[in-house]
Amino acid sequence: MDQSARNQYQILFERMLRCMADFEHFDREEFVRVLRELAALFRLSKGVTEFYQTVRAEKDGEGEVMIDYDTGKKDHPVLRHRILSRSKSVIISTLYMADDENPLEEEEREKLDLILRVLVHFIARNRFEDSVEKLGYYDDDGYPNTRFYLRFLDSLIEQGSLPAYTAACFNLRSFSAVNQEFGRKTGDLVFRNYFDALQAAAGDDGVVCRMGGDNFVMAFKKALTEKVLGLLSGTPVICDPKSGQRLLVSASAGILNIPAEEPAPEPGDIMGRAFAAMLAAKQNKETPVVYYDKEMISERKKTVQIHLLFPKALENNEFKVFYQPKVDIDTGKIVGAEALCRWFRDGHMVPPGEFIPVLERTSEICRLDFHMLELVCRDIRRWLDEGRQLVRVSVNLSRKHLSDVDLREHILEIVDRYQVPHESIEIELTETATEVGFQSLKRVAEELQKSGFCISVDDFGMGYSSLNLIREIPWNVLKIDRCFLPTDDEPEGSTTSLMYGHVIAMARDIGLECISEGVETPKQVEILRKNQCRLAQGFLYDKPLAVEDFELRLSQGYYRKGS
Length: 563
Ligand code: C2E
Ligand code: MG
Ligand code: MG
What we know:
563 residues; alpha/beta; Beta-Lactamase; Alpha-Beta Plaits; TIM Barrel; 3 domains; eight-stranded mixed beta barrel; 18 helices; elongated; binds ligand C2E; binds magnesium ion
């Protein structure tokens, strides 16, 4: 090597190191330029880098090969450097020289070897950063994950551009049906295409990330909201590239217009608010898109709190049974009672509307129902032992029990443990929306009836009542929901009034016992009487009563006529 070549090498080597040192603003063009000049200085014909995930992959020749430059001449390898990373992946760089080129001098070989070593470690580090990025910020299917999302929001906060953005959290609607009907592969394709469409709508300065399953989060410029909401509300997505067949895909979405607050809201907070709005959207069958409001977070906190407190509350006997009498309107006699749950927490009574729907989202409600049945059986046992007059008591069973194949055994175990006559227990079940649900309801109702329990359909007319429900299942009692009972100012010939009369007539003709729920006024009692519905339950007679008050009522035995 002559002095001028040495000088040139020195300059190029320094330029190369400078490029590598400025990692944050890595100048790729300069780097490639330097490497080419170095290759020319050392008369190289080709440079090749190979990447292998494992040593075995290296052996099998299954990796990635990158040709860094190539003069196309016939050549042979002159230097090779291989490194094995700590995670046992392999990187090999090889330099070639044309066959007709002057061979490397010893000094040249030493210098080139140094360059190659530095270079391979630099490539390895870059590669490692890429895999860390992939591992940390993408999920197994290659979608950016929540960490990616939070980092994106962080960068918006840093730039001060957060208030220009809208955040969304969404869940694909009925996506399991797509998987079931068209297969997993098609499902994945639809998923990917929908994701790409949303990413395109969010633009280069927006992101779509997967939280897990079919839950996603997005952030996009406020000006794009309408476009994105259009896609979320429903858009056709290709499910078969060959035929061009498309499926309509939509999502339940929670939207948060990020406010210009000082200090800026935390990224985790933004995600939490959009998520709370999405939960509300999921419960809202009509509007699939719901905007965030403050109440949602407190709702969510309450929900989490209930799930947290429930097991201990059950252990501490915080759940009590209240009894609401069922009355024969002609005699004023108490003919039965419904057991309703009350939660006493820190001296306050929590109404069922606040915790039953929450517990119904998991199977915790089943534990509560069995607990209630046990409390009822304990009371009945005591009434029997004390020689009191007994009335039939109904307990509510959530729909969640329908998938329990041992439900009858569970119920029998409790009732028989207290030696309570089966006919003094009535089980209230509610209607279901699906065919599968209907078949389970039929099975459960038949089994329980065979075991001697009385079974009733609760809240009839409220939800998905079908006449099939009445025809196919051998109910003993029809409990007509209070929304069916005409109010005092309801005109006589109104649809509600007419339907009410016809439902009762139908029940009577079939031989079903019929009871009206939510009777609040004497005028309503008159309506019952006129339509020959003899049984009533409602505030006019009594609210649900604590056990001592109910026992007092029972010992009186009846209400003053018409009260
Ligand atoms: P439900 O089974 O339809 O019970 C009747 C509800 O109507 C009770 O509400 C009762 O207090 C209320 N009610 C009775 N008469 C009147 C009236 O005249 N006017 C009005 N406005 N309301 C009246 P509650 O006790 O708040 O229970 C609400 C629902 O919570 C129940 O509806 C039932 O679905 C559920 N629930 C209560 N306890 C249990 C339980 O132990 N297990 C299960 N699975 N659900 C329960
Ligand atoms: Mg009920
Ligand atoms: Mg009811």
